């Protein structure tokens, strides 16, 4: 290959992103950092001389998927000796240099606090050798980096990073370190820029977003959310993920009061049993969780709720599992992310408890949870048939360009006939059908109906 083409390829990078929305946001930060140094992003992996894997360590199967990709990339590296592979994010922070021995494809490693060193790591590899930057840095919030965004409609804004909660099952405190919040003024500046650029949806992100605290201005999350919603009055404001301990009345009132803050709260419960919540070190009982749900519903009657739940954590008995099913039946979440427990090395549970629920039993319990939740979601979604919902159109639907996909304020996915609408439009849709995960409908003109479903 002629030298010029190869050196262009050597400056071109592609990022595979795994895991949560924070990782998606981080890929935007990494892209900005590399572009500042003259690197060029591509969405065609074959064009790239540098391939980054921005990884997730939260469950075993997320880690396995990265392992499979690294094996595949090793074959590619044998054919193209100059290809550089970097693994960044939560897995390298967790497994550290041991990854080099396990996956010979890897050239360098960087953790969530060291993305600024990636250009230097690439240079180091180009000089011959491997590189790793895995220090924690609680001061790092990537303040001042304007992330490169995937969408012109919807933007993520990380407002805090890390987690201090030490839930027994969870690897995040070991991959993302201690909590630190973005300065209030920086968040506001970023939101003002997004509003000025016409963004229609802004999602504030944090592993424990509602524990946000800016020491300089002594602002909490309720104050931040209120200010953000005023700075971007034309945008829908969302936030995730919330911890029950930080659901305050002031926060719920802010969500209820500000019209552009979506009436949707993702509130992981993890288990319906107080005994399990104790073992999980969640810091609250199930009664306290139910009280938070009651508070939310009393102040925001049309709220939609979603949750995360784990089947088969250490020591889980049949009665604990039944308590999880009972919680789902009582609360009737709109949606849930449902997992079976997998041990994460280094966590409190891995050190203190035996992973004693047999795999087959974990999977049976998880299936019961999924079946119940799907039935509840389907019932709730069917109740919406015949109502009109306000939808922000996001993209073409996966099946057909004659249909668009969007979401209600309550975060329900809606697929509807396009009829000339474009992604970014906010429109009213008459719901004509539903599955357990999607509403189906067609646009209606304002004024042709009498009742609007705010969910
Ligand atoms: N096993 C299974 N699920 C887990 N989660 C976190 N750690 C584990 C684990 N070790 C789930 C929790 C969390 C979500 C992001 O992933 O439900 O809220
Ligand atoms: Fe995965 Fe958690 Fe890291 Fe997000 S913070 S990428 S969910 S391990």
Could you name the key traits of this structure?
single chain; 455 residues; alpha/beta; Rossmann fold; pyruvate-formate lyase- activating enzyme; OB fold (Dihydrolipoamide Acetyltransferase, E2P); 3 domains; six-stranded parallel beta sheet; five-stranded mixed barrel; 15 helices; 22 strands; binds 5'-deoxyadenosine; binds iron/sulfur cluster
Short précis:
The protein is α/β, with parallel strands linked by helices. It is built from 15 helices and 22 strands.
What does this structure look like?
- The chain is an alpha/beta fold and 455 residues long.
- The chain folds into three domains: 131 residues, Rossmann fold, CATH 3.40.50; 223 residues, pyruvate-formate lyase- activating enzyme, CATH 3.80.30; 62 residues, OB fold (Dihydrolipoamide Acetyltransferase, E2P).
- The strands form six sheets. Strands 2-1-3-4-5-6 form a six-stranded parallel beta sheet, with helices on both faces. Strands 17-18-19-21-20 form a five-stranded mixed beta barrel.
- Helix 8 packs parallel to helix 9.
- The radius of gyration is 23 Å and the shape is globular.
């Amino acid at each position: 290959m002629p030298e010029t083409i190869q050196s262009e390829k050597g400056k071109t990078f592609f990022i595979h992103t795994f895991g949560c929305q924070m990782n998606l946001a981080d890929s935007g930060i990494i892209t900005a950092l590399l572009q500042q140094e003259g690197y060029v992003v591509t969405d065609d992996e074959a064009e790239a001389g540098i391939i980054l894997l921005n990884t997730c360590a939260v469950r075993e199967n997320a880690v396995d998927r990265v392992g499979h990709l690294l094996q595949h990339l090793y074959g590619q590296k044998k054919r193209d000796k100059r290809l550089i592979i970097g693994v960044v994010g939560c897995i390298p922070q967790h497994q550290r240099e041991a990854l080099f021995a396990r996956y010979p494809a890897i050239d360098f490693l960087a953790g969530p606090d060291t993305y600024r060193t990636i250009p230097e790591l690439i240079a180091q590899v180009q000089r011959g050798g491997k590189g790793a930057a895995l220090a924690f840095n609680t001061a790092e919030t990537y303040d001042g980096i304007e992330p490169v965004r995937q969408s012109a409609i919807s933007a993520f804004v990380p407002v805090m990073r890390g987690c201090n909660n030490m839930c027994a099952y969870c690897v995040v405190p070991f991959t993302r370190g201690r909590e630190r919040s973005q300065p209030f003024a920086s968040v506001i500046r970023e939101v003002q820029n997004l509003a000025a650029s016409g963004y229609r949806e802004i999602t504030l992100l944090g592993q424990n977003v509602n524990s946000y605290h800016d020491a300089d201005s002594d602002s909490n999350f309720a104050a931040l959310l209120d200010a953000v919603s005023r700075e971007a009055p034309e945008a829908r404001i969302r936030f995730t993920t919330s911890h029950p301990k930080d659901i305050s009345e002031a926060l719920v009132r802010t969500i209820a009061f500000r019209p552009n803050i979506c009436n949707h709260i993702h509130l992981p419960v993890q288990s319906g049993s107080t005994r399990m919540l104790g073992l999980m070190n969640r810091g609250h009982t199930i009664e306290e969780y139910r009280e938070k749900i009651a508070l939310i519903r009393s102040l925001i009657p049309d709220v939609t709720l979603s949750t995360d739940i784990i089947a088969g954590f250490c020591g889980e008995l049949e009665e604990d599992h039944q308590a999880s099913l009972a919680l789902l039946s009582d609360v009737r979440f709109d949606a849930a992310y449902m997992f079976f427990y997998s041990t994460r090395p280094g966590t409190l549970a891995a050190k203190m408890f035996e992973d004693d629920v047999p795999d087959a039993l974990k999977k049976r319990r998880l299936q019961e949870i999924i079946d119940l939740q799907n039935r509840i979601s389907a019932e709730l979604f069917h109740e919406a048939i015949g109502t009109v919902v306000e939808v922000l159109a996001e993209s073409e639907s996966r099946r057909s360009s004659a249909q668009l996909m969007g979401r209600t304020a309550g975060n329900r996915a809606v697929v509807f006939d396009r009829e000339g609408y474009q992604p970014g439009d906010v429109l009213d849709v008459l719901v004509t059908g539903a599955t357990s995960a999607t509403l189906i409908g067609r646009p209606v003109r304002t004024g042709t109906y009498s009742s609007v479903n705010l969910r």
